[in-house]
Amino acid sequence: MDIVYNLFPNLAAALDAFLRGFLPTEVVDIVMMLISIITILIVLVVAFLMFTYMERKIVARIQDRYGPNRAGPWGILQPVADMIKMFTKEDIVPSNADKWVHWLAPMAAVAPVLLAFTVVPFGRGMSGRDLSIGILFMVAVTSSVTVAIMMAGWGSNNKYSLLGGMRAVAQLVSYEVPMVLSIVVAVMLAGTLSMQKIVEAQAGPGGLGMGWFVFFIPVGPVAFLTYFVSAVAETNRSPFDIPEAESEIIAGYHTEYTGMKFGLFQMAEYLSMFAQASIVTVLFLGGWQGPLLPSYIWFLVKVAVLIFVFMWLRGTLPRFRVDQLMGFAWKVLVPIALANIFVTGALISLTQAILK
Questions:
Q1: Is 1 helix (H, G, I), strand (E, B) or coil?
Q2: What is the pLDDT of residues 147-159, one digit of tens each?
Q3: What predicted TM-score, i.e. pTM, was given to this entire model?
Q4: Closest to 178 (Cα-Cα) out of 224, 138, 226, 240
Q5: Nearby residues of 98 by Cβ (< 8 Å), 6 or more positions away
Q6: Which of 9, 83, 169, 288 is the most interior residue, by most CB within 10 Å?
Q7: What is the 3-state secondary structure (H, E, C) of 248-289?
Q8: How far apart are alpha carbons 223 and 214 in whole angstroms?
Q9: pLDDT band (50, 70, 90) for residue 207
């Protein structure tokens, strides 16, 4: 069973040992790093295509429709058709746009999200790099998407795009605060910033994952809900999709984007959702911890459930007004997150005093 449970770490170790038989150590390290990068990129592209199909089907069912059902059996080739369409559509740049900023914005939106997955522990021993500040690194790079959105709004030379970009900056900066405060709770409970070690700290008796921080009453559930709501806002998902409010500002910051540039913004949104679901899984749901199944299966199942909730919310809740959205962050989530940190500190101190 070890072959199944540790399939990918064993494959990596075998390939590493094979390459070291005839290549210098430095070259082997570079080759293994490139293989890790290519593997993660392939997984993310496939995940992006799957999420677009998954969301269309879920929202269609909520709205009593069929969803994609023409391209391939059950419409499973619809994401491939969309990809072909994105690659072949004309790339139009407004004549008065700042062409360099307009051109760089989509890549600046995708690159940080791809970089974030280098520290995600997809399973036991399955992460590109186990940084000692892994969770801090991931939050830092995912939050930099804000800059790309503002670049898109400014570079398009379109008032609606600029308004959408400014809304996005205000929203993302606001919800970053309760998000980080919620992370502090998990870091205090685990005593580390390493994503692998945070997962290991949640191992219960027999390694069955019964120590998940979401069950650490009362602070765990509060931190989990606060972070998850902030994550929905961070990814511009309903009901927090004010930056793309089509009934008010056309399509927001990506109004002037066509073809693959538009596709890159969509890719950044879906992969950001994947990244946020991964962070929630690592911080509060035990990461890859779980009985019977291989660790990477447990991780993907938990992430898939969270992504389903993201999509469920999109098909269910109406959009907030911009004043409601900002007020909810500063008047509700931030005070709750701050109070939760104080309660967590008190509980940790009390527990340590009792154990002494």
A1: coil
A2: 888 888 888 888 8
A3: 0.88
A4: 226
A5: 154, 155, 157
A6: 288
A7: HHCCHHHCCCCHHHHHHHHHHHHHHHHHHHHHHHHHHCCCCC
A8: 8
A9: very low
